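User: I'm curious whether this sequence folds into something compact or stays loose and floppy. Could you predict its structure so I can see for myself?
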Amino acid sequence: MKEIKINRYVIIMIMCIGSSALYFLPYLRWTFYDSLLAAVNLSTSQFAATLSIYGLSSMIFYAPGGYLADKFSPKRLLSIAFLLTGLLGFWYATYPSFVIQMVIFFLWGAIATAFFWSSMLKIAKSLGDSTEQGRMFGVLEGSRGLLDMCIAFVFLFFFSKVANEIAGITGILIGDSILCLVASVLVWIFISDHVTGSIGEIKIRDIGRVLKMPSVWILSLVVLSCYSIYITSTYLTPYMTEMLKLSASVAAGLAIVRSYFFMFVGGPIGGFVADKTGSIPRVIIVCFIIIIVALTGFVVLPASPDVAVLAIILMLLCIAGVCGMRGIYFAPLDQCKVPHHLSGTAIGVISVIGFTPDIFMNTIAGTLLENYPGADGYRYLFIVSLALAAMGFVAAFVLNQHVKKLHKTDKTKFQEAEPS
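Assistant: Here's the prediction. I'll summarize afterward.
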């Protein structure tokens, strides 16, 4: 354990380098939409289809990825994920046909969830004992946010110095693909197999055992609620410009703070507070209370420039609650007594349910904003988010009671086992 404690933050940083590079490729359009569209030579609908197939394959492979993380070495799975993602990145940089691009995005999604996601979280769980789970997951989330921001700005600087836009996009794709390969090598060198503990002990019948765990389903609802609100928060940017009449530059600045700064600081703070208090579920409950207060403000306040300052404060509160929770919502697995050799499978099951908002939340938001133009559409969207936050609060409360019950049972067994 001593070796792990010395190296664990280096291990987290290596995983975060690979994570940022792995996700930057399929989501490059978020930063360079028009330039990338011109480079890949697709229609707008085809361009959208590539990311849709990525999302579909990601959802399909969350659960199998959890099983693989328990069955095989997470270190090897991570290294393979970064290697294959980088190689596919080089292929994508040749701008092949639409069909080939669809294949590449499908494979990127499958690799991200089958080989990478659960393996990364299982390694993070292994880096700390039961009193450090919040800290490890929080630092992981914060470091991912920091590196996402750094990589985005480095590539943006490079792009600004290249005269030809398509050449700039090609350089970014190749550069990020190389970074994936570097991460693959770093994982192989610096992460030991013993970090993750026992592997290969899981059997097919253990999947049923995981599905019978109440904590898995409760945590699934917590993640689903939080992630739904996170997606909704992206609509605060057009809300600020359309309803509050903020300039595009101010709204963009607030979006950067929302997307990067709070992810960087929120995760670690939430994790350290959770470990300090000794109860991760209680911190999650507090985060949901903060979110509920903020969303209630958006529902009751008029969508007017007169309340712009208060709306910005409410937005920051909401994002603080979301990011503080996102860093730790997988951390309760240890307090819920999920066996370590089944933690990957549990993470996979939770992810399948918890990240389904990728499928429906944007559709709900788009439908509401289209059918109810203006302030009404946003208010209805905030009401939906508020209902989801209330559901998450209830789930977090039940989770807290469940953890208390488990600890009380353990304490009773310990006392009964003591010699009289």
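Summary: The chain has two domains: 1-197, 201-411. The two ends are 34 Å apart (CA to CA).
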